[in-house]
Design brief:
Blueprint lengths: L6 H4 L2 E4 L10 E5 L12 H9 L10 E5 L8 H11 L5 E4 L2 H14 L10 E5 L8 H11 L5 E6 L2 E7 L6
Helix pairs in contact: 2-3, 4-5
């Protein structure tokens, strides 16, 4: 009987799984609508009082997407003021929906990677994951890896889609 050889394991491919950078913290939305007068108008004095009376410790360690579902004109400073209350407690605060939150969490995680380990390497960015990985994370990892890798692929080491191969200097 012939020995089965795992050529994938013996290859020089480096597999990069973006799911490893998925922040496990809870994700929540905070809607400004209840803080508005008749859920339509922002009155500064009442808004400030409502924020002061809110226990923001409930957001400790959470990832917060701040939005306003009311059809109201909310001044920029109101979101900034809310962020000042959330920042001491929350892991991440963003303006937008859950997609904007995921984008920000991955962007933050991808900024922390030491990319020198991928210099001149053949890298496969894994495509399957249990947790949602936004397309923006795949675009960002491509942007960061392309200048330094020898080749970049997508998929699984046994079945890849080539994306980029560094040009060799012609003689």
């Amino acid at each position: 009987m012939e020995e089965i050889i795992n050529k994938v394991a013996q290859s020089s491919l480096i597999s990069l799984d973006l799911e490893d950078y998925y922040h496990k913290g809870e994700r929540v939305s905070l809607d400004l609508k209840p803080y508005l007068f008749q859920e339509l108008i922002l009155k500064e004095k009442e808004f400030r009082a409502a924020l002061k009376s809110t226990d923001f410790s409930q957001f400790t360690g959470k990832n917060v997407a701040v939005c306003c579902t009311a059809d109201a004109i909310v001044p920029t400073w109101a979101y900034m003021l809310l962020a000042t209350y959330l920042t001491p407690y929350a892991n991440m605060v963003v303006f937008g929906d859950s997609n904007a939150l995921e984008d920000a969490l991955f962007r933050d995680a991808l900024q922390r990677i030491d990319y020198s380990q991928y210099e001149g390497a053949k890298v496969v960015v894994k495509g399957c994951s249990k947790h949602p990985v936004p397309i923006s994370a795949y675009v960002e990892i491509t942007r960061r890896l392309q200048p330094i890798v020898n080749s970049l692929m997508f998929g699984e080491p046994c079945s890849t889609v080539p994306l980029y191969k560094q040009k060799t200097a012609s003689k």
